[in-house]
Amino acid sequence: MDDAKIVALLSSIEPSEGEIPKPPFMAAIPAGPALQSGADAEAIDAWVKARGGWTHRTPAHLAGPQGGREPLFYIVPRGHLAARPGGAPAYVPAPAKVSPGVAGGTPARGLAAAPLMAFAATNDLPAARAFYERGLGLPMTGQSPIACTFDAGGTTLRVVAVEKPVIAPYTVLGWTVPDIRATIGDLKRRGIDFERFDGVEQDELGVWSAPGGALVAWFKDPDCNTLSLTQF
Fold first, then answer.
1. Helix, strand or coil for residue 67?
2. Which stretches of the chain are assigned E, i.e. beta strand?
3. Which residues contact 73 (CB under 8 A, 6 or more apart)?
4. Helix, strand, or coil here: 12?
5. Are 230 and 215 in contact, with CB atoms under 8 Å apart?
6. Cα–chain-centroid distance for residue 120?
7. What CATH code would you report for 117-231?
8. Of 17, 26, 46, 166, which is most buried with the most CB atoms under 10 A?
């Protein structure tokens, strides 16, 4: 069972809201419909874990007909699901096309070798510049009346002024750090506050320990975009 089929299958299942403790950027997908379809349970489990998710088993006294809850859920980062509005089937990537001008019919590489650029929206560019440059310590590499660009560890981050930013209910930018607690201490000294979420077990610094072993903490920029730190 390949990745595209797993994405399509999990994205077609209505997620459970509110009853399974999880970070806000994760979705709880009932496993029942996937398993009843005859899908490869081991392949799905491996796919979920490879993306920082896990499986959640409902306690025995809550599962089954009396409890009315699915006994098993896949906890998956929402960004890896591709459901369309109205419950339409998920988008499944088409097979790689062959570039007509390449000798031997070598598949097109797409954007595999192209540098990534990240974007964030703001309705207060001076405040956003102060936050990303002085608060987070990112070197600014360019500025115009409508945007600022920063070097985020080799990735270009472009913060763009818009009239009405849309606040996403999930993490929009994240950094991988070697020592999350030391990084939190540094950012706190720079004036950064860290978030706490109901139903998520976080320590005194706001760090959540994921079942897979990763440590995660969240904070927000002046426009309430959710940002994160992760230590693997």
1. helix
2. 26-30, 54-57, 72-77, 117-122, 140-144, 147-152, 155-161, 171-176, 208-209, 215-220, 226-231
3. 16, 20, 28, 29, 30, 31, 55, 56, 58
4. coil
5. yes
6. 15
7. 3.10.180.10
8. 26
Q: How far is CA 174 from CA 9, 149, 191, 217, 220, in A?
A: 27, 16, 18, 10, 11
Q: How far apart are CA 122 and CA 106, in angstroms?
A: 42
Closest CA to 4 of 99, 85, 112, 82: 82
* Sequence spans of domains, the chain: 3-81, 117-231
What distance in Å separates the CA atoms of residue 224 and residue 221, rounded to the nearest whole number? Answer: 5
Other C-beta atoms closer than 10 Å to the C-beta of 40 total: 14
In three-state secondary structure terms, 183 is helix
| Interacting residues of 85 by C-beta distance below 8 A, sequence separation 6+ | none
